């Protein structure tokens, strides 16, 4: 299909408005009012589905989360929480779980300032806290008999540390004072104090009970910090206490262990022995009894698995992949539901241009609940009745959490593709203004994704449908309503082209990926879609890096906006909490100084002529504020057109709704000013 044909398809996707109720243009205020579904969990008997809806509150400056329950057969939802504040810092992460007998629904909520496990008895009563960890709980699981909880929490500070903090004599000793999350066990009725089971030097990230309740498997690293997740092993220890034994003893990421229903296997996410961030995180199986690496099976070659769950019969698993062989070409913007049988068969459930999240199965495996996002949606709760075979019926939608979307004139969003400089086929999403096909060339803004191994999906917030959408700094639907087209390219180095695609920009940031982006722009200009005199570019994190890079390499763009952007790659290695990723791409800065400098925008800052808006969080540890400050100062010194905004309290992602709204408002105004839509 040609790009012109693709554009005609986009126009055809716009549904006619009901008579007398024409949809209105999208504003930033409209986007800030939208709700996100943060978790979905079906009851063990399959009769009910619990889910959490979050909505930005400008008054409270947080994303408020509320728990609901809806019949799986359909019907009106019931709100379950009122005064209880579900865990929402920095964003809602309620970790919904049902008790094994289905009488109680548990979740993380605040007791004072700390997240604890709460449970709501659905036979009546108010939610009550089941844990009272002095440092709060980050993850938990019910024992199979429903009498015990295992949870993750760090040890409380030593009395001496507390004293020194009070008298202000406490000094941070780098790499020597970390308190890792440990595995704790306590009885649900609170009759005995919680007991720590895992060693003090294990930084635990995930856990699961064996079906007989005698053992707890957990993933842990001996290293603190961001890089620790890429050096994890899987351990098992008796739930009554004892020494842990190693079940998966190899380097790399090995995490999210889940026992099979018969207790024979442990499924887990792994980089297959490679301690590298630029690696596929696939689904693997290991014998629960342990063994050497030769006994580990890889279930999903060249597939990056985001979530998975066992089918109750133990013969298959359900997985949600971020990237897979099925997600190539026009399908790279989807997240399918895959059923993976242990004998090697695989089938896709609910096929179509959707993005799926949080699948859960009833106890008999005959009913599946999940969240599904359509191209112009925010996501809804669906239930699918399974017959156990490859073919399934149609899913039933149970919710409508954003009825306001029907009244908004959303711009159509559809895949487009082009040929890059070396013949590689590159894909992207194209968003155009709502209404009829344009009769004139449009201002075009290129939105570059983060990562580098990130990407876009369908949805109103194409880079953040997995989170609360308003963390997206660029209000693309409001930009479309303002008369701009938005190209969301997927260049090499990111998702959509397999692990080989990830590695195509090793020692080559800003080379092939930059040329992929520009080839897409050139194609839209040739096709008469984009106005070559009104081009803009924007992006955050790695997208911010590539935005900075682009404006040092070409003067074709009339405006640019960079959020949490990287200007000096060597500084990133030394100062970022995840700076070791640069070592995988370029080596060590003192051994590859020329390459680091040659791929850093700051080296070529004198070439910039594009007006640039720089935005950055004050407390960003992933891309420290200095990255933006250096680029701003160099541009300002040369009299270039540049503005910089620092968002107080903000990290790498901004979670405060008041700031989220301001960031989106400023970006919309910036491109309106320079591109004149």
Explain the overall architecture:
By secondary structure, the chain is an alpha+beta fold. The chain has a domain at 410-675: 3-Layer(aba) Sandwich (Rossmann fold). Helix content is 16%, strand content 32%. The strands form eight sheets. Strands 29-30-32-31-33-34-35-36 form an eight-stranded mixed sheet, sandwiched between helices. The longest helix is centred in the C-terminal third of the chain and has 19 residues, at 657-675. The protein starts with a helix and ends with a helix. Mean pLDDT is 92; it is low at 1-19.
Features:
677 residues, Rossmann fold, disordered N terminus, four-stranded antiparallel β-sheet, eight-stranded mixed β-sheet
Topology overview:
Elements: H1 3-12, H2 28-32, E1 36-42, E2 48-57, E3 62-71, E4 78-79, E5 97-98, E6 104-111, E7 114-121, E8 128-129, E9 139-142, E10 148-154, H3 159-166, E11 181-187, E12 195-196, E13 203-209, E14 215-221, E15 232-238, E16 245-248, E17 254-259, E18 265-270, E19 282-287, E20 297-298, E21 304-310, E22 316-323, E23 337-341, E24 346-349, E25 355-361, E26 367-373, E27 380-385, E28 396-397, E29 413-419, E30 425-431, E31 442-448, H4 476-481, E32 485-490, H5 498-502, H6 512-526, E33 530-540, H7 542-553, E34 559-563, H8 569-575, H9 581-586, H10 593-598, E35 612-617, H11 626-637, E36 642-647, H12 657-675
Parallel strand pairs: 31-32, 31-33, 33-34, 34-35, 35-36
Antiparallel strand pairs: 1-2, 2-3, 3-4, 5-6, 6-7, 7-8, 9-10, 10-11, 11-12, 13-14, 14-15, 15-16, 17-18, 18-19, 19-20, 21-22, 22-23, 23-24, 25-26, 26-27, 27-28, 29-30, 30-32
């Amino acid at each position: 299909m040609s790009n012109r044909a693709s554009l005609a398809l986009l126009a055809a996707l716009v549904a006619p408005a009901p008579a007398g109720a024409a949809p209105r243009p999208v504003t930033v205020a409209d986007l800030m009012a939208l709700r996100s579904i943060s978790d979905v969990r079906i009851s063990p008997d399959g009769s009910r589905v619990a889910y959490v809806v979050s909505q930005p509150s400008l008054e409270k400056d947080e994303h408020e989360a509320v728990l609901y329950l809806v019949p799986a057969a359909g019907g009106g939802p019931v709100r379950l929480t009122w005064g209880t504040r579900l865990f929402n810092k920095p964003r809602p992460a309620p970790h919904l779980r049902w008790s094994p007998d289905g009488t109680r629904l548990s979740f993380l909520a605040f007791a004072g300032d700390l997240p604890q496990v709460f449970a709501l008895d659905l036979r009546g009563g108010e939610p009550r806290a089941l844990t009272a960890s002095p440092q709060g709980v980050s993850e938990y699981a019910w024992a199979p008999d429903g009498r015990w909880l295992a949870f993750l929490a760090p040890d409380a500070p030593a009395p001496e540390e507390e004293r020194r903090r009070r008298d202000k004599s406490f000094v941070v000793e780098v790499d020597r004072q970390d308190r890792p999350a440990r595995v704790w066990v306590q009885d649900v009725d609170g009759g005995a104090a919680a007991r720590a089971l895992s060693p003090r030097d294990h930084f635990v990230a995930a856990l699961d009970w064996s079906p007989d309740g005698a053992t707890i498997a957990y993933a842990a690293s001996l290293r603190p910090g961001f890089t620790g997740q890429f050096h994890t092993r899987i351990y098992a220890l008796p739930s009554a206490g004892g020494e842990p034994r190693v079940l998966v003893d190899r380097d790399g990421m090995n995490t999210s262990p889940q026992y099979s229903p018969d207790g024979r296997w442990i499924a887990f996410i792994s980089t297959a022995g490679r301690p590298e961030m630029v690696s596929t995180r696939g689904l693997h199986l290991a014998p629960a009894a342990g063994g050497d690496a030769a006994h580990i099976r890889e279930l999903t070659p060249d597939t990056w698995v985001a979530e998975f769950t066992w089918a109750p019969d133990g013969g298959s698993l359900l997985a949600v992949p971020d990237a897979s062989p099925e997600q190539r070409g026009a399908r790279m913007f989807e997240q399918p539901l895959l059923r993976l049988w242990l004998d090697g068969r695989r089938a896709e459930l609910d096929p179509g241009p959707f993005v799926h999240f949080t699948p859960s199965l009833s106890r008999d495996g005959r009913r599946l609940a999940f969240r599904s996002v359509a191209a112009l949606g925010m996501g809804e709760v669906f239930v699918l009745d399974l017959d156990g075979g490859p073919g399934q019926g149609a899913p039933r939608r149970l919710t409508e959490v954003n009825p306001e979307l029907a009244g908004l004139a959303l711009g159509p969003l559809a895949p487009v593709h082009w040929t890059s400089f070396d013949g590689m086929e590159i894909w992207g999403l194209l968003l155009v203004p709502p209404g009829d096909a344009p009769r004139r060339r449009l201002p075009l803004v290129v939105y570059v994704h983060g990562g580098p191994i990130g990407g876009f999906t369908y949805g109103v917030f194409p880079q953040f449908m997995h989170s609360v959408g308003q963390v997206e700094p660029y209000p693309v639907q409001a930009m479309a309503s303002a008369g701009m087209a938005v190209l969301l390219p997927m260049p090499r180095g990111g998702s959509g082209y397999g692990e080989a695609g990830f590695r195509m920009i090793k020692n080559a940031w800003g080379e092939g990926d930059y040329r992929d982006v520009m080839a897409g722009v050139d194609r839209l200009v040739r096709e008469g879609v984009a106005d070559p005199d009104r081009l803009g570019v924007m992006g955050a994190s790695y997208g911010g890096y590539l935005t900075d890079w682009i404006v040092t390499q070409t003067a074709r763009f009339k405006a640019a906006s960079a959020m949490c952007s990287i200007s000096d790659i060597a500084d990133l290695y030394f100062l970022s909490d995840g700076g070791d990723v640069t070592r995988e791409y370029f080596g060590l800065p003192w051994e590859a100084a020329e390459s680091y400098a040659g791929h850093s925008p700051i080296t070529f800052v004198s070439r910039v002529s594009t007006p640039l808006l720089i935005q950055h969080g004050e407390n960003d540890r992933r891309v420290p504020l200095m990255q933006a400050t250096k680029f701003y100062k160099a541009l300002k010194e040369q009299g270039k057109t540049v503005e910089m905004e620092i968002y107080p309290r903000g990290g790498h992602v901004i979670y405060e709704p008041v700031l989220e709204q301001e960031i989106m408002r400023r970006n919309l105004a910036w491109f309106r000013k320079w591109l004149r839509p």
